[in-house]
Design a protein that fits this description.
Layout (H helix, E strand, L loop, with lengths): L5 H13 L13 H5 L8 H8 L4 H15 L1 H4 L27 H10 L19 H18 L1
Helix pairs in contact: 4-7, 6-7
Amino acid sequence: MFNLSLKHILPIAFFTIFGNMQVLASNQASTPATTAVKECVGEEREFCILRNFKDSIEASRIRGKIAYDNYCVLCHGKSGLGDGRAAKLHNPKPANLTASTYPAEYISRIIVVGGEAMSRSPAMPPWGNQLTDEQIKDIVNLLMSIRAVAK
């Protein structure tokens, strides 16, 4: 889905860490910036979106994928199926995020306070002190999109 090389990750990480970007809710209607994203094509598409349409839902999902790959993939797996390399260490197993039916607000809260605080798996750590609000919203936007693809 996303093919980013190292030459793309550093500028994206800079945007993620230092950017002053507004994050869109996953259910927000299409905006001119979102529609204009279609102008970005080819292997440079993700970088083009981040550079030129940083406030779009597409840019949020790309940033979310970067954060997900850094913080979530070890347990939840590359596709969110709960089959990451560390999944076998946990009982219960990590959630299959593609099958989740929870609303974005609930998912965001689990990320912030962890599974145990939400009467879920104690193996899900609280990320509220490590992730910015923007990173959490970006991850949630990504998760909402992979859930939609799985249906």
